[in-house]
Amino acid sequence: MGRLLAVTFAQAGHRVTLHEAGAPDATGSAARAAAAMLAPLAESAVTENGVVRMGSHGLKRWPELIAQLAQPTFFQHNGTLIVWHRQDAAEASRFQRQLDTTARAMPELQPAQTLDAAAISALEPALGQRFAQGLYLPGEGQLDNRQLLAALLHQLEQLKVELHWNSPRSPEEFSPGKPGTADQPDWVFDCRGLGAKPEWQGLRGVRGEVVRVHAPEVTLLRPVRLVHPRYPLYIAPKEDHVFVIGATEIESEDMSPASVRSALELLSAAYSVHSGFAEARLLEISTQCRPTLIDNLPAVRFTGERSLQINGLYRHGFLIAPAMLDVVMELLTTGDSALARTFDLRVDHLTPKPV
Q1: Is residue 150 assigned to a domain?
Q2: What is the C-alpha to C-alpha distance for residues 65 and 285, in angstroms, rounded to an integer?
Q3: Does residue 280 lie in a domain region?
Q4: What is the pLDDT of residue 95?
Q5: Structural domain tally of the chain?
Q6: pLDDT of residue 180
Q7: Considering only CA atoms, which of 65, 143, 55 is closest in space to residue 106?
Q8: Nearest to 47 by CA among 320, 239, 248, 289
Q9: Of 74, 85, 59, nearest in space to 149 by CA
Q10: Burial class of residue 33 in the structure, from the number of CB atoms within 10 Å of its CB (0-12 exposed, 13-18 middle, 19+ buried)
Q11: Which of 95, 47, 94 is nearest to 314 (CA)?
């Protein structure tokens, strides 16, 4: 979120300084660990309609944002395939009912299509006749988060943004917009995720574990989600037969390495989708905590007349980041945001609004 805002401001001609607690490669950030699926209808099973609308907005905006970057970023708009094993049919029925409810409430979304074994095989030939039933969500997509982070970094450098790495800062260290204060910014934007926890009551981390593998024997044309009784599981194909498999969801801020149980469950589930994962090579097993507010929804809040915090993107960071960006730009240019109301997005003022 911070890189996206910084690039947008710099492209508009503003002088931008970015302070980042970590390194340029974003190691240690939730954004680097993510799978970056853009699946508003699929996510409606675990979130509110406002987030779904933000995701639908983001799907349209990402190609525009990526086109403005000098370096390429893998972006795919081939939909999502949902499958399940026979023993999970009841859970799949519940999941489908939720998707149907969302589609009725938001006719702008393309509804899920019911598939039989032959239709699954035609859509995703590598799966053959392994699954008897499935769902296809045609309007969904994904991007490569690490390519995007690198492309945004390159753009920041090209735009001569002043970059400070390994430089943790807090908004209290700045006096934005005050006359007579030398070397101070006009605005401060806080996109620290869990780094803002000392200032934002209720912010917490939700642990997730993700596996990256290289599987030359597997070809998937789109993200595949496996209905699972304990947590939503996905396999997101990237370029060159790299796959991101995730993600556990644990109410904990523990950042220790992934447990054996979680790794076994993720890899076993992937193998149950395609036996070619048995010969895959483990590239990485990573752990991160998603920045999550008390209601699991994102929020924007003014902590001063010229100080703005953006947080709580939870498990939907790449899905909703363009919507959050557009809301912030509306707030800055007009003092209000019709988009925020469309998305049911909270915009709080911790100090009285300026007259």
Answers
A1: no
A2: 30
A3: yes
A4: 93
A5: 1
A6: 64
A7: 55
A8: 320
A9: 74
A10: buried
A11: 47
Please give the Cα distance from 213 to 4 (Å, whole number): 28
Strand order in the sheet with 113-116: 113-116, 133-137, 80-83, 224-226, 233-237, 242-246, 204-214, 281-292
Structure tokens at 114: 């019911």
SS3 291: strand
Q: Where are the alpha helices (DSSP H) in the chain?
A: 2-11, 30-33, 40-43, 49-67, 89-105, 117-123, 145-158, 260-273, 317-334, 338-342
Do the domain assignments include residue 256?
Answer: yes
- Name the pTM for this structure: 0.95
List the structure tokens of 83: 């499958």
Residues making up the chain, counted from first to last: 355
CATH number, position 213? 3.30.9.10
H or E element, residue 284: strand 281-292
Q: In terms of Cα–Cα distance, which of 191, 142, 116, 130 is closest to 43?
A: 142
Domain assignment present for 69 = yes
One pLDDT digit (tens) per residue for the chain, 355 residues: 999 999 999 999 999 999 999 999 999 899 999 999 999 999 999 899 999 999 999 999 999 999 999 999 999 999 999 999 999 999 999 999 999 999 999 998 999 999 999 999 999 999 998 999 999 999 899 999 999 999 999 999 999 999 999 999 999 999 998 766 778 999 999 999 999 999 999 999 999 999 999 999 999 999 999 997 776 689 999 999 999 999 788 899 999 999 999 999 999 999 999 999 999 999 999 999 999 999 999 999 999 999 999 999 999 999 999 999 999 999 999 999 999 999 999 999 986 544 4
Domain with 70, as residue range(s), is 41-144+204-290
- Distances in Å between the Cα of 227 and the Cα atoms of 96, 234, 349 are 10, 9, 40
Rounded to whole angstroms, the Cα distance separating 315 from 310 reads 15
Residues with Cβ within 8 Å of residue 4, at least 6 apart in sequence: 65, 152, 321, 322, 325
pLDDT at 355: 42
User: What sections of 162-292 are H helices per DSSP?
Assistant: 260-273
